Amino acid sequence: MAINSTPEEHEEFRLERLAKAIDDRDYTATEIDKKFAPGTHGCHEAMHVACIINDLVDERLCSHPAILRNAEWYRLAAEAQEALWNLYQAIGEKHMDA
Please, where are the H alpha helices in the chain? Predict the structure, then answer.
């Protein structure tokens, strides 16, 4: 079954996960801003992870024979890779400007 979340559902889930991250790690919202805002090591780490996962999806998933032989699977894998690349670029733009 495919997942097709709305932007509102994504935002609700993001806020739930943010609250959990604050609670689990005993961070305040201010500490999260200081540790993970653009220009910080935490932001650089997120950008690096996006790059690594993008490469992994491209090299291992998009070139896997099971994926290559099925047009729908390839399209989905390629969309995932493109989304990760776009995430990497979006983080990088803000991070490098800071």
Answer: 7-25, 29-36, 41-56, 65-68, 71-97
